[in-house]
Write a structure and sequence with these properties.
Distance between the termini of chain A: 27 Å
Number of strands of chain A: 0
Order of helices and strands of chain A: HHHHHHHH
Oligomer: heterodimer
Helix content of chain A: over 70%
Structural class of chain B: mainly alpha
Structural class of chain A: mainly alpha
Largest sheet of chain A: none
Shape of chain B: globular
Order of helices and strands of chain B: HHHHHHHHH
Number of helices of chain B: 9
Largest sheet of chain B: none
Number of helices of chain A: 8
Chain lengths: 174, 201
């Protein structure tokens, strides 16, 4: 029910905007093309950064480091209250939405969506985002080079969020 | 900073690729990655144009101003400079509401529009302003009332109760977002004072 309602959200928003163009008195389509042109400018601005970032992410996915790190750190992670199965997700999450989605799906298949690691992974997946990707896109779109304390703070919050999510799942579900 | 991230990722990947015997895949990964960048950009670019246009229509109709008036008691405290300049709060409220409603695809174009407005108030265009950082960190904390993507994935994986995680997700996102605002405020204040005294940052 909620899912189908939310699926309707975007089309409804678009249709309402269309209705505005149909019945409104102002030149709303002119406003649309003007805004869209701004979007085009931003897009062009993004390409240089995005090529570098995507090459780096693609290399990271291909080299197998995710599996290596997960194997090495697994026992240690278990000891500090972090299910070892989560590690691949934690490594890919900050960089790439599609890679994180793939690892999340694999993880759910391996351990089950309603197991403790599966639930922890779901909460982490739902309450964190692709930190590096978002920060890169946002800053390079406006030409900011020095990002100051942004990455340290964002990564610290994500780490906190990971532990907090696992803790929350333990007391919530078990 | 991006240069450092790029360097670390590439060096680590090369090292790990050689150690794992995945060196052959690395070469094609480089070629794929550059191609993927254009693919991502094409889909992102379509979205940027479309939602940028949509947002401009709502602005023309006065809907975004209404939204921003609704959120302004909150946003004024988080983004005092933008509030004082009277510019950017509309885009920020559109960005945060789109995130909240789970319209992630629409949120990015609005976030970028907000970044541009904030950039106009930025005295050092090369350097991120405190409010820009706050906006980015709030976006990475991903506070969403309805993460549709996640629910669909859980359902596809055969979960008996896809929605069971909503409570913990809301609590975790809320705590992380509040922590994000707090930390950004602390760091912003700490880094502001010395440069405000006339020292070269």
């Amino acid at each position: 029910m909620i899912e189908s309602l939310s699926a309707l959200l975007l089309p409804t928003v678009v249709a309402l905007t269309g209705a505005l163009m149909l019945f409104g008195k102002k030149d709303y389509f002119g406003a649309f093309t003007k805004g869209a042109r701004e979007g085009l400018r931003t897009t062009v601005q993004l390409l240089p950064t995005l090529t570098a970032l995507m090459v780096a992410i693609s290399m990271l996915n291909a080299c197998g480091i995710v599996e290596t790190v997960a194997e090495l750190l697994g026992p240690a992670a278990d000891r500090i209250g972090l299910p070892a199965e989560l590690l691949p997700l934690l490594i890919t999450r900050p960089f790439s939405g599609s890679a994180a989605t793939a690892t999340y799906t694999q993880l759910l298949e391996q351990v089950g969506a309603d197991s403790l690691p599966g639930l922890c992974a779901s909460v982490i997946f739902g309450s964190s985002d692709t930190v590096v990707y978002i920060a890169s896109v946002y800053f390079s779109a406006v030409g900011v080079r020095r990002t100051r304390y942004c990455f340290p703070v964002a990564v610290a919050i994500m780490l906190f969020c990971v532990f907090f999510s696992c803790f929350l799942c333990r007391i919530w579900f078990f | 900073m991006l240069g450092k991230i790029f360097g670390i990722l590439c060096l680590l990947s090369l090292l790990a690729g050689i150690l794992n015997g995945n060196a052959p895949q690395l070469g094609s990964a480089v070629l794929d990655g550059a191609g993927q960048a254009v693919e991502v950009l094409l889909s992102l670019g379509g979205m940027l144009c479309f939602w940028g246009g949509m947002m401009n229509v709502w602005k023309e109709a006065g809907a975004i101003q209404g939204l921003s008036r609704l959120l302004s008691p909150l946003l004024r405290r988080i983004f005092p400079v933008a509030a004082a300049k009277g510019e950017g709060l509309e885009e920020i409220s559109a960005n945060l509401s789109a995130n909240l409603l789970g319209m992630g695809n629409a949120a990015t174009p609005m976030g970028l529009a907000a970044m541009e407005k904030l950039q106009r108030q930025n005295p050092h265009p090369e350097k991120a302003s405190a409010e820009q950082i706050t906006l980015v960190v709030m976006n990475t904390a991903a506070f969403s009332l309805l993460p549709t993507n996640l629910l669909a994935l859980r359902r596809a994986a055969g979960s008996a109760s896809p929605y069971a995680v909503m409570g913990p997700i809301w609590i975790a996102s809320l705590v992380c977002t509040l922590l994000a605002i707090l930390l950004c405020r602390l760091f912003g204040a700490a880094s502001q004072n010395p440069s405000g005294a006339g020292k070269k940052p």
